[in-house]
């Protein structure tokens, strides 16, 4: 029963990734056409447009959410693949522990980076 719950979260994370990555692609890679969140017009990746997006709390939250669901989805999927090798229970517990620690560490680092960029963007060009 517990594995079913984790698998359901894995599938739900895939749906969230699909939505957030689609939004990212629309804004970043079609920004020249759509001009979404680009007050200066032109390229979505320009410094002015990037600082504009980074200063918005919506983007900071979605970056952190995308990071979290992508890490969970990827690490849980890799864990599932490794468990299909029929490893010993001690090895499975070790793999789970390593992936949890790795995932939490990467999530913490990515969250710190997103919040730091948000703070820099709010402070303005001269900070």
Structure in a nutshell:
It is built from five helices and no strands.
Outline the fold blueprint:
Blueprint: H1 2-29, H2 31-34, H3 47-54, H4 57-83, H5 89-123
Helix pairs in contact: 1-4, 3-5, 4-5
Question: How would you portray this structure in words?
Answer:
The protein is mostly helical. Helices cover 80% and strands 0% of the residues. The chain contains 5 helices and no strands. It has helices at 2-29, 31-34, 47-54, 57-83, 89-123. Helix 4 (57-83) runs antiparallel to helix 5. The protein is elongated.
CATH superfamily: Fumarate reductase/succinate dehydrogenase, transmembrane subunit
User: According to CATH, what is the class?
Assistant: Mainly Alpha
Low-confidence stretches at least 5 residues in length (pLDDT < 50)?
none
Q: SSE order in H/E notation?
A: HHHHH
CATH topology: 3 helical TM bundles of succinate and fumarate reductases
Main sheet: strands, sense, barrel: none
Could you tell me the number of beta strands? 0
Query: What proportion strand?
Result: under 5%
Counting structural domains, the number is 1
Assign a percent range to the helix content. Answer: over 70%
N/C terminus separation: 51 Å
Helical/strand content category? mainly alpha
Q: What Rg, in angstroms, do the CA atoms define?
A: 18 Å
Approximate shape: elongated
Mean pLDDT: 86
CATH architecture identity: Up-down Bundle
List the total number of helices.
5
């Amino acid at each position: 029963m517990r594995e079913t719950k984790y698998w359901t979260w894995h599938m739900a994370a895939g749906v969230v990734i699909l939505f957030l990555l689609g939004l990212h692609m629309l804004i970043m890679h079609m920004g020249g056409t759509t001009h979404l969140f680009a007050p200066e017009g032109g390229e979505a990746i320009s410094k002015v447009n990037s600082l504009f997006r980074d200063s918005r709390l919506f983007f900071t939250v979605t970056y952190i959410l995308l990071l979290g669901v992508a890490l969970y989805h990827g690490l849980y999927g890799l864990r599932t693949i490794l468990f299909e090798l029929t490893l010993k229970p001690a090895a499975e517990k070790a793999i789970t522990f390593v992936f949890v620690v790795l995932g939490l560490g990467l999530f913490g680092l990515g969250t710190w980076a997103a919040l730091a960029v948000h703070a820099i963007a709010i402070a303005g060009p001269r900070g």
